[in-house]
Each structure stands twice: as C-alpha cells, then as structure tokens.
Amino acid sequence: xVPAFPPSLYRLAVSNPPQYAPLDGARRADICIVGGxxxxxxxxxxxxxxxxxxxxxxxxxxxSGASGRNGGQIHSGQRRDVLWLEKRFGAExxxxxxxxxxxxxxxxxxxxVRFAIPCDLRSGxxxxxxxxxxxxxxxxxxxxxxxxxxxxxxxxLDRDAAIAATGSERFFGAVADHGGGHLDPYRFAxxxxxxASEFGASLHEGTPALSLADGPVVRTxxxxxxxxxVIVATDGGSGHLIRESxxxxxxxxxxxxxxxxxxQLGEAILPGGESAADSRYVVRYWRKTCDGRLVFGGGETGxxxxxxxxxxxxxxxxxxxxxxxxxxxxxxxxxxxxxxTAPRLPYVRQVSxxxxxxxxxxxxxxxxxxxxxxxxxxxxxxxxxxxxxxxSLPISPLPLTEAARRALVSMALWRGRLADRF
Length: 422
Ligand SMILES: Cc1cc2nc3c(=O)[nH]c(=O)nc-3n(C[C@H](O)[C@H](O)[C@H](O)COP(=O)(O)OP(=O)(O)OC[C@H]3O[C@@H](n4cnc5c(N)ncnc54)[C@H](O)[C@@H]3O)c2cc1C
Prior knowledge:
This protein is of the alpha/beta class.
C-alpha cells in the first residue's frame, strides 16, 4: 500500500488544478488505463489522438503518485549506463536501449512544445562524483558515449570545475550532461492530462481500480469499465490488481525538501541553471526553482516507513553538500515511491492478450514513462515493435511476501549506505 506523503511544493503551488469527476456507473471503452501519471497520461494522449475511446481511472488526483512528486530530472540513457548494458546484453542491444532513451528525452521536449506546457523546462544535469576513484570510470563512460554513441553533449569536470558548477566543495569531479534537463514535474503532468482530455479521453480522479476481472473489466467503487484492452500504469502501486506487477516491482520511498527562496545565498549553487545528482547509491538530487528555492532530495526508506519529520530526515543530506544553508528554513517536505526492478530497467509486459503493464523505471521515469506510454499506445493499436526492446528485457522476479520485500529493501539500503561511505 502506498503511504500517505505530504503534498509536494509543486502541487501546493497550483491552487486550482483542473478536476476530473470520479467514475459514476458502467462504461464501455476501447481502452481503460489505470493510473494517471506520466505513463498512463501519455498512453491516453496518443490513443485518444488516434481516435480510440479511452477511459483513465486514477485513485487520487492526476499526478498524485511519483509523477507529481519527483526530482524533475531528465536523464540521458537508462538507469544502467551503456558500459553496464554492453557487458550484460552486447553492443547492439545496448545501442538500442540508448537510442530509445534519446527518443524518450526528445518526446518530453516535443510534448512540452506541442501542448505549450508551462513547466519551467531547463537544460543540464550534473552528476557530481563523491569519490576520487570515480573519475576514471567517468572518463571511460564519456569516451564510450562519444566514440560509440556519437553523443558529445557530456563534459568531464575536474575538481575545481565541479566545485564551481555545483557550488559545493563536497565533490571530486563531475560529468555535465548538457543533453539532460529538468522541469516542474507536476505541471508537466497537468499539461499531459489537459492534452489527453482535450483529445477526448475521459479522465476520472478519486477512482481507485478495486479489481481487474476477465473481460477485461476494471471495477471501481462507483462503477466499472468494460474495455477491449487495459493498461495498468500504476508503477507497481496496485499489486492487488495484477500479481505480475507486484512480482517484478519494488517500491523505495525517497524524500524531498524545498528551502525558502535563497536570494544571494543561492547564487553560487548551480550557477549554470542545471540540476544535479550525486554518484551515491542512496542518491541525492537537487535543482533550483524559478523563485530561487533549492529543491533537494535525499534519504530513502523501505515500504511503509515514512519519517515523522521529513525535513529533519533530509536536512543532514542537504547540509553535507551545502553546509552554508544551516540556517535556511525548509518550507516543504514530501516523499514518494520510486519503483525499481531487480536490474534497474523498466518492466513492460503484455501479461495477457488484453492486459499490459508498465513501470519500474528505477529513477529514470521523467523521460522513460511518457515514452513507454506512447509505445504502449502503439502496441495496443497493433504496432508492438517499438516496445520489443523493453518487453524483451529480462527482469527477474522478486519475493511476494511483505516481510521478504522489506528485508530486501533494508539489505539493499544498508549495503548502499556502506558503499557510499567508503
Ligand atoms: C521522490 C521521487 C523522485 C524522483 N526523481 C526522479 C527524477 O529526478 N528523474 C526521473 O527520471 N525519475 C524520477 N523519479 C521516478 C519518476 O517519478 C517515475 O518513474 C515516474 O513518475 C513514473 O510514472 P508512472 O506514470 O509510471 O507512475 P506514477 O506517477 O506513480 O503514476 C501511477 C498512478 O497510478 C495511481 N494508482 C495506483 N494504484 C491505482 C489503482 N488501483 N487505481 C487507480 N489508480 C491507481 C497512483 O495514484 C498514481 O497517480 C522519482 C520518483 C520519486 C518518488
């Protein structure tokens, strides 16, 4: 079950988001989509634009899941870098996964332009290296990207340049990816919802899908949708609907704070306007908003464990990187579930002839989720080729019992924290 996190800064900044009435009564549809995040909304846009009759049911508000609460970073590639992918899958498949991720970034930009979504899109992601030994790996990766992937938008920064780019003395170097970017995640999702609705998709908030029966039929408290095809786009948040999603996706809570506007104090922090993430296993990520706040994510817990005071939980991570912010007020603290798979690659499957499931983008969903939503729409309309690169990824199963899942997350976080220290 998804814990109740406080609303994000991004959500609170929008006083009257459009509302979509709960489903009331029985409906027929070509496609029923469960989940109103990037995956579901993008699928809804592309299906409705193609003329399909689409009903989307969302348990809470549009983007009340990870899509409205995330770090807003648009990363290049998959969660696993190309060197890892080449070793595991060979050059050809690694290349296809890289190309797909490039298409995903391009789609985000295209959607923002096409639907004029005001979501503060900016360029640049800096990966800040927290250990000197990581410079050699960064070099190797950058050479591979340039030589084998013709990607020349990355620059390796030495220690001085990394300090200047991040405004923190904490780092030993960095990789600046000018092809990445960042945005206001919630406004991006709102724009997608508006576009889907304008193409004729019926969106219903406050409508949790309670069961998924043969038909397929999606049952809710106030009605049901009988559809030709169902897309379960809940990012793992619906183990009761579909066992396969619970079997392959695991939720890790990640926490975020926003500072008060920093004024002059913030001038040295990310002066180039990029976003940043560090190289730790338990990753810290940050960006500045248009009004000069620092939005900073750091600290993770397993399912059901939400700290009573999120700001106090994240503060040490923030001060580790920016000690000069010790006296700055943290005005907002929130969290969300990052859904991961064992290999940290997306889980996309056609689990029966009329049911698709997708999620587990493992921290790369700002770009990958809308893209996979689009590919799902194509697959449902009879063109599954684009999805093959994802549906064929081997994703090993995870334990199903709650106790075993908790133990797995605790162990992974413990090992990660240990690795981060040395
Ligand atoms: C704190 C945080 C920081 C992150 N930072 C980044 C980042 O910087 N860059 C990046 O690329 N990725 C990041 N991610 C990951 C990214 O946000 C996700 O991969 C992406 O949003 C997933 O989109 P989605 O549509 O698949 O799922 P979601 O956005 O989670 O949408 C699923 C929706 O399904 C709904 N739902 C669940 N069960 C039901 C049901 N039974 N019936 C109806 N509706 C249901 C939920 O309410 C939810 O709205 C972050 C995630 C978090 C939580």
